[in-house]
């Protein structure tokens, strides 16, 4: 007896500002200039070039985005959305279940590692805390409420709003909030990754942690975030070398073959990281083994994924800035299809041609949800400024005073 696809009930799912993506999933990194196939170099700077002094009141130049990370985020969110659409139709297809296992092995780890990488600059300063609140906490409250109301309207009138019990996709936002708050702690430890792995192991054998803030996922996915904090640009250069790209092909092929063999034997609950081993029906020691096994497998597949992410600007690079929209909004479509009994009404959707159709359709839909237009339309919910809610610090007040005389003079 297998667990029902837990992800379809409370599906996990895809990376912060400053040195963070522009939104929890979509805020961009500062661009790292590239030359050659995957090489990253520092642009040549004249030895004695003088840096012009900023003009008082002038708008600072925006940070340049890194095409590699925008490409990675867009491609990862496409995998996320496709896997979510496979959940209600994969029970009769061993091949689809195998692909689902492969995708779930790396798509969340990839997002979380990138989130950690761009959270390295989080230092509990007032500016960073403000961005954490507006970019993570506020979207969590809005979409946790929206998803609950949607379920109440479409399926369960008794569904209650609970900000302590994340539902469906919103778990990642609350997890990111907790992880980023603890960033200074991990950066102060001598060996943070072994400590994070130990915490994940303990969580995997502790069934009474409870559902508050989805702590099982927060703790079991923690090592990936901590690993991201430890990474440097040269690590991403390493996985994008030509020999790694070539090696990634047989590795992924072997993984797909193994997943096809394991599909009817392996409980999907392991890949959601939302339950202890005992809750999945396994002995406690299996949680220890699977934590390390999945961590190793996820890192290998994430490296294979990143190895084939283009480093140059592509037609979809601009969509990397809008992956938060793709992440949070596509869930309404997936859940809506289930509430409307779409898969029972049209059983052909569970056939191979139907599964291919759903895969392509969801890839198109999530692409549209990542567009700049959608990002602008939902900025109030995903990237609110909320300057009215925060006090200005002394530096900002001084800048405001400097700008007033300059503005009067220009007028």
Chart the SSEs and their pairings.
Elements: H1 6-10, H2 67-86, H3 94-117, H4 126-154, H5 171-181, H6 183-188, H7 192-204, H8 215-220, H9 222-230, H10 233-239, H11 242-262, H12 269-272, H13 277-280, H14 284-307, H15 323-339, H16 342-345, H17 352-369, H18 372-377, H19 379-382, H20 394-410
Helix pairs in contact: 2-3, 2-15, 2-17, 3-9, 3-11, 3-14, 4-5, 4-15, 7-9, 7-14, 11-14, 15-17
Q: Roughly what fraction of the amino acids lie in strands?
A: under 5%
Distance between the termini: 75 Å
Secondary structure: helix percent: 55-70%
Q: Which structural class should the secondary elements be placed in?
A: mainly alpha
Rg over C-alpha atoms, rounded to the nearest angstrom: 22 Å
Count of runs of 4 or more consecutive helical residues: 20
How many strand elements? Answer: 0
Oligomer state equals: single chain
Low-confidence stretches: 1-23, 26-59
Task: Report the sheet with the most strands, covering strand number, pairing sense and barrel closure.
Answer: none
SSE run: HHHHHHHHHHHHHHHHHHHH
Mean pLDDT: 85
| Rough outline | globular
Give your account of this protein's structure.
Helix 4 runs parallel beside helix 15. Helices cover 61% and strands 0% of the residues. The N terminus is likely disordered. 41% of the residues are buried. The longest helix has 29 residues. It is globular. With 411 residues, the chain is mostly helical. It contains 20 helices and no strands.
Quick overview of this protein structure:
This protein is mainly α. Helices cover 61% and strands 0% of the residues.
């Amino acid at each position: 007896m297998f667990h029902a696809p837990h992800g379809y009930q409370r599906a996990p799912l895809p990376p912060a500002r400053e040195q963070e993506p522009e939104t929890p999933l979509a805020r961009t990194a500062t661009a790292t200039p590239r030359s050659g196939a995957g090489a990253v170099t520092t642009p040549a700077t004249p030895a004695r070039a003088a840096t012009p002094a900023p003009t008082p009141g002038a708008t600072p130049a925006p940070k340049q985005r890194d095409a590699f990370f925008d490409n990675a985020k867009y491609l990862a969110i496409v995998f996320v959305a496709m896997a979510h659409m496979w959940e209600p139709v994969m029970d009769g297809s061993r091949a689809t279940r195998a692909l689902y296992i492969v995708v779930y092995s790396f798509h969340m780890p990839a997002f979380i590692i990138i989130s950690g990488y761009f959270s390295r600059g989080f230092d509990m300063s007032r500016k960073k805390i403000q961005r954490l609140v507006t970019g993570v906490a506020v979207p969590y409250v809005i979409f946790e409420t929206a998803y609950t109301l949607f379920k109440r309207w479409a399926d369960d009138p008794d569904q209650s709003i609970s900000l302590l019990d994340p539902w469906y996709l919103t778990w990642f936002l609350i997890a990111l909030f907790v992880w980023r708050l603890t960033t200074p702690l991990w950066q102060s430890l001598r060996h943070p990754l072994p400590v994070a792995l130990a915490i994940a192991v303990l969580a995997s054998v502790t069934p009474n942690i409870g559902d508050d803030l989805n702590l099982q996922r927060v703790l079991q996915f923690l090592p990936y975030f901590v690993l991201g904090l430890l990474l440097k640009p040269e690590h991403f250069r390493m996985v994008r070398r030509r020999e790694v790209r070539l090696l990634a092909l047989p590795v992924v092929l072997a993984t797909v073959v193994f997943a096809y063999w394991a599909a009817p034997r392996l409980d999907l609950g392991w890949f959601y990281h939302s339950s202890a081993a005992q809750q999945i029906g396994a002995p406690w020691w299996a949680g220890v083994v699977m934590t390390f096994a999945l961590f190793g497998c996820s890192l290998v597949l994430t490296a294979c994924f990143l190895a084939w992410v283009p480093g140059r600007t592509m037609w979809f690079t601009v969509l990397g800035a809008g992956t938060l929209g793709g992440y949070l909004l596509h869930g309404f479509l997936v859940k809506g299809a289930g509430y409307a009994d779409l898969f029972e009404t049209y059983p052909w959707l569970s056939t191979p041609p139907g599964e291919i159709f759903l895969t392509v359709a969801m890839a198109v839909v999530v692409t549209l949800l990542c567009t700049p237009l959608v990002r602008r339309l939902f900025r109030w919910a995903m990237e609110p400024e909320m300057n009215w809610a925060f006090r200005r610090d002394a530096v900002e007040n001084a800048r405001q005073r400097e700008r007033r005389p300059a503005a009067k003079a220009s007028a």
